[in-house]
């Protein structure tokens, strides 16, 4: 059993990156970005139309007004944009929706580490 606590990491100068590498896991941010991209892929494959589901309407909705001063710093769109940027995918809607349309292509991107 590999027990590494704060005392061990401080005493033996073990960094988080080296510990993750030794255990064969990734940092929480990479898991979160993969989850966001996987969710966006599922939503883009939902049918579009007047009776489309709420997640699809949320993802493809558009508000014509500008954001007020003091708007939230991290929105769904900005989070998705950061996840796309981390994988090297264009943030243009037509670019990433073409990748997400085919599940096998999208799944191969999720398996890549970032």
Total DSSP helices: 7
Spatial shape? elongated
Quote the distance from N terminus to C terminus: 28 Å
Mean pLDDT: 79
The main pleated sheet reads as: none
Structural class: mainly alpha
Order of helices and strands: HHHHHHH
Give the strand tally. 0
Rg: 19 Å
Helix content: 55-70%
Poorly predicted parts: none
Q: Beta-strand percentage? A: under 5%
Question: How would you describe the overall organization of this protein?
Answer:
The protein is an all-alpha fold and 114 residues long. The chain is built from seven helices and no strands. It has helices at 6-11, 16-23, 28-44, 54-60, 76-87, 93-100, 103-111. α3 packs across α5 (76-87) and α3 (28-44) runs antiparallel to α7. It is elongated, with a radius of gyration of 19 Å.
Structure keywords:
single chain; 114 residues; mainly alpha
Entry summary:
It contains seven helices and no strands.
Q: Strands, helices and their partners?
A:
Layout: H1 6-11, H2 16-23, H3 28-44, H4 54-60, H5 76-87, H6 93-100, H7 103-111
Helix pairs in contact: 3-5, 3-7
